[in-house]
Each structure stands twice: as C-alpha cells, then as structure tokens.
Amino acid sequence: MTARVDPVRLEILKNLFHSVAEEMGAALRRSAFSPNIKERRDYSCAVFDSRGQALAMGDHMPVHLGSMPMSVAAALAAFRSLAPGDIVALNDPYAGGTHLPDITLVLPVFVPGRAQGHGAAFYVASRAHHADVGGAQAGSMALAQEIYAEGIRIPPVKLCRDGYMDRDVLAVLLANVRTPAERQGDLTAQIAACRTGARRLEEIVARYGFREVAAYARHLLDYSARMMRATLRGIPPGRYAAEDFLDDDGISAEPVRIRVAITVRGERARVDFTGSAPQCAGSINAVEAITVSAVYYAFRCLLDEQVPATAGLLRPIEVIAPEGTVVNARPPAAVAGGNVETSQRIVDTLLRALAQAVPRLVPAASQGTMNNVSFGGIDPRTGSVFAYYETIAGGMGARPGRHGISGIHTHMTNSLNTPVEVFEHAYPVRVARYALRRGSGGAGEWRGGDGIVREIEFLAPAEASLLCERRRIGPYGLAGGAPGARGKNTLLRGGRARQLPSKVSLRVERGDRLRIETPGGGGWGKKRKERK
To answer: Does 66 have pLDDT greater than 90?
Structure first.
C-alpha cells in the first residue's frame, strides 16, 4: 500500500531542501577570497540523501550540479565509514570529478532519530572553480595533451577529520598551486558552506522529525521521476538524431564530432552518443559525469521550473556514452575544456535532436562556448604571484516568440563576468573595452542575442591562455533562422592585430591587448520584413 503524500508538506520540504542549497551558496560567495567565486559566482551547492541521491540543487552552475552526484558517489565509495566532522575533497575527473579546477567537498550530516550504525542521514556538497590548481600554465586551463599538465589531481581524501583540517593534506595541495593563500581561503569558504548546510538540515529534522523528513525526501525523488515520465509521454515516440562539431582540439585542425540519437518510447528515453569522435589529443575531452550532466540539463529544460531538480529526473532516461570517446574519455586524456566547452556542444547537439520532436519548445543554438580566459604572472604593484580565470558571456539563441538575450551566460554555465572595477583593482590589467557586439545575433523571425566584446590591456607581462569554441562553426539557427556570428580572438601589439586560434597559450607583454569577441546566438524562423 502506497503511503499517503500530503502535497502541501511535499512543497514545504521541497523548498526547505532548496533553501539549504541556496544558503550554502550564499555563505560560500560571501566568505570566498577569489573574484572568480565572489564576483563571478563560479560555484555550486547541493543536498543529497543517505544514499547520495540529489534532493536539491542551488540555482547555480548546471555543469557542476548534474555531475556532482558522481563526486558524492566517489567519496562514499572511498570512505564507507565517514564520521561527524569529516569532509572529503576531490577533483580527479576519473574518480568522480569533472576537470581539475573544480574542487568538490562532501560532508556527511548526522541527525537524531536515525538508527545507530546506519551512517549519515544526508550529505551536502560544495563545488568551486579554483582560479589555479597548478599545472603547466597559470590558471590551469591551458591547452594540454595529458591530465598531468593540467594541475594537481586529488582523489577522494579527507580534508577534515573530526571537525579539524588535516594540515598534511592541505600542505600538499597548497604546495602545488601558484596562489596558496587564495586557495586556502576559498577552500575554507567551501567548508563554511558545507557546515552551514549541515546546520540547516539539523534544524529541519529537529522541527519535523527524521522519519517524516526522510519519507518526504523519497517522495520528492518519486515525484520528480513521475514528472519526467509525464513529459516524455508528451513527446512523439521516435528516434531523433543530430550531430554538431567542436572547432578542433587545439592540436590538430580537424573538427570533433558529437553525435547523439534520442529514442523516446512512452515514458522512457534512451540517449545514445555512439558515433561521437574518439577521445582526442587536446584538452576538450569530457568525462562521463559531464555528459550525464548535459543530458540532465537538456531534459530538465523541458519541464516546468517548479519541478524539483532531484536525482529522480534521470530515472526514466538511459545514457549511453561509449568509453574512449570525446564524451567519455579515459586516462590520461586532458579534460580541462571538456567541462566548459564540450559540455556546451553536447547540449547544442541534444537540443538540435529534441527540436525535431518538440520544435516549439527548443531555442536555436546559443553561443556554445564559455570563452575561457586565464592568465597569471607577477603583480608589479605587490611583487606577489597572481592567477586569474574567467568566462565571458555571449548571445542566447532565439526561441519561438522571443528574441535571444544579448550578453548572457547560457546553458551549462550560470556565472557572471567579473566587474571592471574589481578586475582592475585585483589584477595588473585595464579593461579597454567592454560592450555588446552589435549585429552578431543570427537573423530570423526572432533574432539571436548579440555577443560581447571584451578587450583587456595587460599592465605587466603574463602567461595567458584561451580555450574557446564557435570560432570556425557558428551557432546554428532553427526553423529557417540564420546562424549567429562566429567568435574571434585577437592580440593587439604595437599597433598590429594578430588573429589568434580558438585554443592557445601565449606570452603577453606590458601594453598588449587581448580582444575577445564572443559569438552571437542563432536566429529562429525565417525573417519577415515587417517585423521590427
């Protein structure tokens, strides 16, 4: 006999769990050291049940959130007897992580009312992109050909034991990064976020009792699964295939194929990436967690935003990502760009396939890249080492009935650009130009959003790296809409302009300017002359 579910209580618990993840994010943002986390908000927080199933996610980064369950699973597999006050840290893409700059902390939550010996009642996790984790180039996002050049690789380890930081583990981490004080500050902010989440869960249990909270956690998972099944039933049965391409891997000039076939049968779907390119020499390889995260995001977009983002959403969906391909790479493949660039292209390909099934629900392609910029060197103002990382917004794809939004982060990213005032205060740079790239959105009945022009002047020599996409293949339009303009990278030196490839590491000198022109979004529908 199925237990009766009170819909009011279900809604209350749904919002309480969500508020925990949101407050964790607020605590992390307020206490972090780096502009990448404080200003750009490149972090995510989530709440999990006793089996590591996601119960709630903050309104943070989709690429983080959909992949975080694998990090929690890796932590639980490595430490089956976590105690109160323990915190597990990891970033290894081949052991639950995504790419090395994303460090995840997992904390078990113990509450009264759970039987002794049954372990934690919940888990909370915080993930943040650290502006440098070592490696061959400052910012740890350079073009590389193996993971060992991308930074320090952290398998699941206990960063905290019994509530105290493990100084030996911390010392190893900080000895392998360029900005240890900033890294320690950001890690302690993540710890604060996890402890905030634990306290809030303890308060919820104290108010409602563990049995009821645990029961409604299960009901939330079941409800999300039912909502996804209902959505799948509304999609015409069939097989919907599509492919798209990454410009190149940075090592060769060959485009890299992402291919998907979505088969919908009743209330189930199979998402098969067979036919995607083999893993490549450059750093655009994605691990399985990234591919699953992109699938989670694309199908989540088909649901009403009020449906809780839990692990239940994936129950009716089977994901096939063949090992050894660019969507499920194996060690020692480099993966820095898989998290940021390949995730975007996977989403573009998924949406292109879904547009065949539900054309009025799917937008044209957005910019399809995060336009990763990283650099570092010695700050002449202080004599200290600095390392910086950011992503730059672009154009959103148009959708039926609405133009695309200009200058916005889309799909797998949900961050902000660093404010000019903070950027210039914290680093030896000057922002020479920051503006919308007018006319870069694709034409159509509904126009794609415009990209951005961001031009940075260096006031000190530095190592710089770009990891970008959509420089050769523009974001596609749909239903007759035109593609968005391709992006462009330019180095300005001594009055001369040199076009740069989409993926490059280079030495910049004082007075050099780096101009990033981000892609526009694709248009939707054939253009009508009378529409303004």
So the answer is: no
